[in-house]
Amino acid sequence: MLNNSMNVALLLLIQLLLIAIAVQYSTADESFDVRQHLSTVSRYGIVKDISDDSFAPSQNLDQCTPIHLNLVARHGTRAPTKKRIRELEAFAARLEVLVRDVKEQKQSLDKIPAWLMGWNSPWKGKRTGGELISEGEDELYHLGIRVREQFPSLFSEEYHPAIYSIKTTQVPRASASAVAFGMGLFSGKGKLGPGGYRAFAVTSESRASDTVLRFHDCCQSYKDFRKSQEPTVKKLKEPVLDEITHELVKQYGLNFTKQDVSSLWFLCKQEASLLNITNQACSLFSPAEVSLLEWADDLELFILKGYGNSLNYRMGVPLLEDVIQSMEQAIKAKEGNVN
Fold first, then answer.
1. Contact 179, 198 (CB under 8 A)
2. Would you call 167 helix, strand, or coil by DSSP?
3. What are phi and psi of 132, to 5 degrees?
C-alpha cells in the first residue's frame, strides 16, 4: 500500500512538472537554445555567460589580495565512449526497422523527418571513444587563459612545478585536458614555438589508488551503492519517458519505445554538443520536453552523485583535505615572507 501511494504521489508530481513546464513554454520562444539544456553534456562556452541573479559577490574584494588559487575542473568536451558508439549504431538499425514498419503498413511517411530515414551514426565504425575532441581542447586552453587574466598577480613568479602544480587522473581525456589548460595558463611564458609556450609538469596517481581525484573508482561501497540505486533511478525517470514517448509516437507515427526516446535524447545531446547540430534529433523534442529530459538527467545525477547520500561526499574528503592543506601552506608562506 505504501509503495502504491508513493507511485501515485510521484505520478502527480511529474504531471505537475509537465503542466508547469508546458505553461512556461506555451508560446514559441525563439531564444530557446537546446545547447544550454544538456545537463553535464553542456559545453563550457555555451553556459559560461548565463547569468545567475542569485549570486551576490562580496563588496569587500577591493580590500583583498589573492595569494593562492585552487581549481578543480572537469575534462573538456569528449567523444562518445565505445559503449555509447555501439548504442548509436544499434539505434540506426532500430530506426530502419521503425521506418520499414510504417512502409509495410502502407502508412504515410509525411510525418517522418527526412533526416531520420537512412540515418547513420556520425561515429559509425570508430573503434575507440571517449577521447578529448578539439572543442574540448579549446575549452580548457581558454579556461587557462581566463584564469591567468583573472589573477595576474598569482602568475608573476618564474615557473616551478612546486609552485604551479597541475594534477590529473590517468584517464586520457582528463590528462589531455590538463595539458590544454596548462598551455593556456603558461602561453607566452616560454620560448617554445611562435606561441611562446613552455614545458610544464602534469602529475597523476595510479587509477587503482587515486583517492584524491578518482575516488569513486577506489570506493567499493560507492560502486555497490550506485548499483543498488539503478532501479530507483529508472523508476523515477519512467513517467517522463512515458509522457514524451506517447507524444512522439502520436506526432511522428513511429512506434517509439522508452528506450528509443532515451537513445534519441542521448543522440540530441551528442549532436548539439559535439557537432552543433540542433535540427535533427533535438528538433523532435519541444522546449518543454527538453527541460523535462534535462530534469531527469539532473535527478539521476543528484541521486547517484549528489549530497543527499553522505557516502557521495565522504569519499571526496581526501580532495577537500588536499585543498585545505594547500591553502594553509600558502597562508604560512605568506606570513613567513611578511615577517
1. no
2. strand
3. -65, 130
pLDDT tens for 229-282 read 999 999 999 999 999 999 999 999 999 999 999 999 999 999 999 999 999 999
Q: What grid cell was written down for 89?
A: 549504431
Measured distance CA(4)–CA(19) in Å, rounded: 23
Measured CA to CA, the distance from residue 211 to residue 204 in angstroms comes to: 11
**What Rg, from alpha-carbon coordinates, does the chain have?**
24
Size of the chain in residues: 339
Rama region for 130: left / alpha / beta (φ>0; ψ in -120 to 50; rest): left
Q: Which residue has the cell 573538456?
A: 76
User: What's the pLDDT score for residue 30?
Assistant: 65
Distances (CA, A) of 41 to 133, 269, 273, 311: 13, 7, 7, 24
Cell of 190: 616560454
For the stretch 147-204, pLDDT in tens is 999 999 999 999 999 999 999 999 999 999 999 999 999 999 999 999 899 999 999 9
Q: What is the pLDDT of residues 67-106, one digit of tens each?
A: 999 999 999 999 999 999 999 999 999 999 999 999 999 8
Q: Which three cell numbers stand for residue 209?
A: 589508488
Helix spans in the chain (H): 2-24, 44-47, 82-104, 134-150, 172-185, 220-252, 258-275, 287-305, 310-314, 317-338
pLDDT in tens, 14-31: 555 655 555 555 444 668
Q: CA dihedral in degrees (172, 175, 176, 182; nearest 10)?
A: 180
> What's the CA gap between 128 and 282, in Å, rounded?
25
